[in-house]
Amino acid sequence: MIRNKHLAKCISDQGWHKFSKMLEYNLQPRNAELIEIGRFEPSSKMCSRCGNIKHDLKPSERTYHCDKCGPTINRDLNAAINIRNIRLIKVAQDMQEFPPVEIATSGLSPKEGG
Ligand SMILES: [Zn+2]
User: Fold this and answer.
1) pLDDT band at 73 (very low <50, low <70, confident <90, very high)
2) Are the CB atoms for 35 and 83 separated by under 8 Å?
3) How much distance in Å is there from the Cα of 72 to the middle of ligand 1?
4) In this structure, are 59 and 21 located in the same domain?
5) Exposed/middle/buried for 44, CB within 10 Å: 0-12, 13-18, 19+?
6) In angstroms, what is the span from residue 81 Cα to ligand 1's centroid?
7) Which domain range does residue 25 map to?
8) What spacing in Å lies between the alpha carbon of 46 and ligand 1's midpoint?
């Protein structure tokens, strides 16, 4: 089945889906959130400080050094910061899309007996 390209992709997608569901389940008691980002987001190749993208970053390079702004940082930490930033941008965009509802306070009477 794995030799069939389309079927292999479907199976690997199902595996990923199950894995992310297991992660979500295990994060719930910790009151933590699973952050999923787009497959092609440059989380490892982007500088978490200035946004510069290093297109030639090899998988074997375990540190990220930004040629533009200078810092050297652990590659996984850099990617984690980028993932958090991508999530924060998404939250900010959602908040603009759905602004908080104004609560009308005039005309409401306090609860009786309370
Ligand atoms: Zn930089």
Assistant:
1) very high
2) yes
3) 9
4) no
5) middle
6) 13
7) 1-34
8) 8
pTM score above 0.85: no
**The pair of three-digit structure tokens given for residue 66, joined into one six-digit string:** 């930004």
Q: How far is the CA of 93 from the centre of ligand 1 (A)?
A: 24
Any domain includes 104: no
Residue 46: CB atoms within 10 A of its CB come to 22
> Who wins on pLDDT, 12 or 54?
54
Rounded-to-integer distance, Cα 84 and Cα 48, Å: 10
Per-residue pLDDT of 8-48, as tens digits, reads 776 677 788 888 888 899 999 999 988 888 888 899 999 99
Distance from residue 38's CA to the centre of ligand 1 (Å): 21
